[in-house]
Amino acid sequence: MVKIKEVSATAILDSRNEKTILVSIKTNAGNFSASAPTGKSTGKFEAKPYIKSIDDDIKKIKQISEYFSDEDIVNFYDLRKVEAICEGHIGANTLFALESAVLKAMAKEQKKQVWQLINLKAKQLPRLVGNVIGGGKHSKSDKKPDFQEFLLIPNTKTIKQAFELNKKIKQEAEFLLKKFDETFKSQKNDENAWQTSLNEKLVMDILYKLKEMFGLDIGLDVASSSFYSRKKYHYLNPKLDRTNEEQVEYISNLISNFNLFYIEDSFNEENFESFSKLLKKFPKSLIVGDDLVVTNHERLKKAIQFKAINSIIIKPNQNGSLLEVARICELAKKHNIKLVFSHRSGETEENILADLAFGFGADFFKCGIDGKERESKIKRLIEIEGSLK
C-alpha cells in the first residue's frame, strides 16, 4: 500500500510558456511528481482548472498536505480517499496532477505499469490522430483558417509506424503549403502544427491530396464555439456569417466532398440537435464531441439522449477526477461511443496520458505529431506497445 507523507505544488511553464501546475508527493515508495496541461480552446462547461488561481491552489495543497497521511492507497479506486480530502479546495488541473502522481507511486510500489492499475487485461492500442495544419485560437497569425485543426489518422500496424508516417506527411504538407500559400513561412502554432493564411477549403484540398498520396484517414476539429455568437457562425476567412442550418449544410458538404473520417465540434457547445442531425446523416464518420461534452458525465448522458455523437474527446484535466474519467469511459463504451484521449494546446513533457488512454481502452490518441511535449506521450505509447510483445 502507498502512504502519502507529504504533498506540495509549484508552478512550471507549459509549451506556450504559460504557467501550469506540478504536484509532488513523498511516499513510502519514494518521491513522485506529475504536471497538468492547459487548454486555450476551452468549453464553457468544463471544470475550473484552479479554484481561484494557480497560486491559490498551491497554497491550498500545502494547507491540506498533512491530511493524506492517514490514508492507505491500495488500488485505483482508492483515489476516492484523495478526492474526499481535496474536494472544494483545489481545481481540476491540480487534482489531475495529484492523482497522476499517486498512480505513479502505486505503480512503483506494486511493480506495475500505471495502465495496469486501471485494467490489467488492457490490450487495445489506439490509432494516432495528428494535427498537421492549424488555425482558429491555436494560431497567432491575422489571416488563418477559421477551423482549428486539420488532422491525419494513419491506419498502420504499429504505433511507431503511425508516428513516423505522420512526421513524414507533415514534411510533405510543408512542401504543399509553400506551393499554395505565398505567405507561408514554415511557422508553427500552439500545437506545433503548420500555420497558414489559407482558408479551410484550400487547406482541405491539401489534406485530401495527402490522403490520396499516403492512403490514410483525415479529419477536422472545427472548434465552432470559438467563432459562434448571436445564433450565427462568424467566419473571417473569407468574412461571412452562417446560420445554424447553413452550418449543417456546409459541414455535410465537407464530409461528402473530402471523404472525412473524423469531424469534431462542428457546432456550438449547446447545439445537441445539430450534432444529432449530422450523425444521422453520416453514421459511418466519427462525429466527435469535445466542447459539447467536456469530459463530463452529465453532458455525456445528454449527448446520448440526443444521439448526438458516436465519439467523445477525453481530456482528463478537463474533469480532474480520474474516477470520473473512468465513469465517463464506461458510459461511453456501454453506448458504443468511441474514446479519443487528447492532449491540450499548452502541454508539458508529462506522459501519463498514454497510460490512461491504454488503460481505459481508447480507440484514438490525439496528441499532435512532433515537439518534445507531444512526442513524450507518443513515445510512451510506443513503449507500452513494445511491452505487450
Fold and architecture overview:
This protein is of the alpha/beta class and 389 residues long. It has two domains: 2-111, Enolase-like, domain 1 (2-Layer Sandwich), CATH 3.30.390; 127-387, Enolase-like C-terminal domain (TIM Barrel). It is 40% helix and 20% strand. The protein has 13 helices and 16 strands. The protein has helices at residues 54-64, 79-86, 92-110, 114-118, 159-180, 200-214, 244-258, 272-281, 297-306, 316-319, 322-334, 352-359, 372-387, and strands at residues 2-13, 19-27, 30-35, 72-73, 127-134, 149-153, 194-195, 217-221, 228-229, 232-236, 239-242, 262-264, 286-289, 311-314, 338-342, 364-366. An eight-stranded mixed beta barrel has the order 5-6-8-12-13-14-15-16, surrounded by five helices. α5 (159-180) crosses α6, α7 packs parallel to α8 and α12 crosses α13. The chain starts with a strand and ends with a helix. The mean pLDDT is 96.
In short:
With 389 residues, this protein is an alpha/beta fold. It is built from 13 helices and 16 strands.
Architecture blueprint of SSEs:
Blueprint: E1 2-13, E2 19-27, E3 30-35, H1 54-64, E4 72-73, H2 79-86, H3 92-110, H4 114-118, E5 127-134, E6 149-153, H5 159-180, E7 194-195, H6 200-214, E8 217-221, E9 228-229, E10 232-236, E11 239-242, H7 244-258, E12 262-264, H8 272-281, E13 286-289, H9 297-306, E14 311-314, H10 316-319, H11 322-334, E15 338-342, H12 352-359, E16 364-366, H13 372-387
Parallel strand pairs: 5-7, 5-16, 8-12, 12-13, 13-14, 14-15, 15-16
Antiparallel strand pairs: 1-2, 1-4, 2-3, 5-6, 6-8, 9-10, 10-11
